What we know:
Keywords: Mitochondrion, Ribonucleoprotein, Ribosomal protein. The protein has helices spanning 12-22, 33-39, 63-74, 91-106, 112-137, 143-157, 165-168. It is built from 7 helices and no strands.
Amino acid sequence: MANSRLEKIGNIYTRAKGLIQSGALQWEDRPLWYDLFERFPPKEDPRFDRPAPQITLKQIFYEEDNIRSIFHKRNKQIGITNMFNSSSQTVTQRFIQCFQKLQKEYETSVPVEKVYEEAVEMLQKERQKKSQLSEEEGEAISLTKSFKDAQEQRNSQEPMLNIKVNELFKE
């Protein structure tokens, strides 16, 4: 059984077990999952001819998912997101917050289109304020600068190791 590759003959557990019993695979080299499979075998044997279970999958959608889909359908060019800077929010996160805040204010009396347009306007005003502040400070917002800042922050958090390779291999 261990030397057959046909999936109809056995599952992966029986093959691994056969390899161990025949000596082709040492006990120390067994797969990580082998002990778990022996201790907690599945209720049904994992065979190729077993019919798929007829389970209805629950659709998991959050309120934000609908808002996010509207935003991304209409705004294909969102811009660059700095993944090193976890302290600032993405444009999508800021849009969702604005949208939800406006929706709470209006409750259900205003259509989604109007709430969307106002949220986009709020984001644009916010962006203009940031650009004005950065111009007043004389510093432009750029991906390069934020990348360098993130690297400096990471380097300041990590302790510097003063290890010399020559000292490691001294006799």
